[in-house]
Design brief:
Length: 220
């Protein structure tokens, strides 16, 4: 874990935990590090999540897939971010999503039961971890609410404009990079990739924006 201490400490889950405390915390949470190749499934729909995943390097996609293989991207987790926390915190809950490696990825799994129960050694940092976890769950809920607002738009253009406006607000600038490829953005917005590409080109021709791959400049 030593190679990833800076990533672990920078994560929201371990905010406020000192370097001295961190070793004890990781032991308390039975932390286990695992490597996965690109496109590997870390978790499958129908699984029960016993642990929270913390991405140490690379990135994963949280996706919904139907029985015909159609994919809908819900979110992405990169270095220092977690996944499956809500499912792991609900005893017996079955995953209705899969977690897929977007790139080669290294993940640390944390035993959620040790987070949600009182530590037998009465760790002073235990309550801090619980507060941080609640904060993460709240943030993810807000992200899903934002996604619903994009999805609620009636046309592909309206969905794109809603999403890009939100990205500009987050970055505090009209020029920014998005975390998705073109296909992934189409999956995230639940539109056809061809229709998305056509709409982006129309918006570019109308002088509303410029783009190159995942880099966008909004013209306002």
């Amino acid at each position: 874990m030593k190679d990833y201490l800076s990533v672990i400490r920078s994560s929201q889950l371990f905010s406020g935990v000192t370097e001295t405390e961190l070793t004890a915390v990781l032991a308390c949470l039975d932390a286990k590090k695992t490597d996965f190749p690109k496109e590997a499934y870390l978790m499958h729909t129908g699984d029960t999540a016993e642990a929270i995943g913390l991405v140490l390097s690379g990135s994963v996609l949280i996706v919904q897939e139907d029985i015909w293989g159609n994919r809908h991207i819900l979110s992405k987790a990169g270095s220092g971010q977690t996944f499956a926390a809500a499912f792991a915190c609900a005893p017996g809950a079955v995953l209705n999503v899969s977690v897929v490696a977007q790139t080669p990825v290294t993940v640390m799994f944390l035993n959620v039961k040790r987070i949600l129960t009182v530590c037998t050694s009465a760790c002073s940092h235990h309550s801090r971890i619980i507060r941080n976890l609640l904060g993460e769950l709240a943030d993810k809920n807000l992200m899903l609410s934002e996604k619903v607002s994009h999805m609620g738009q009636r046309t592909t253009r309206a969905k794109v404009m809603s999403y890009l406006s939100a990205q500009a607000q987050k970055s505090g600038a009209y020029e920014f990079d998005i975390p998705f490829s073109r296909q992934q953005l189409a999956d995230y917005l639940a539109v056809e990739r061809s229709g998305l590409s056509v709409e982006l080109c129309k918006m570019r021709d109308e002088g509303l924006l410029e783009f190159h791959k995942s880099h966008f400049v909004l013209k306002v």
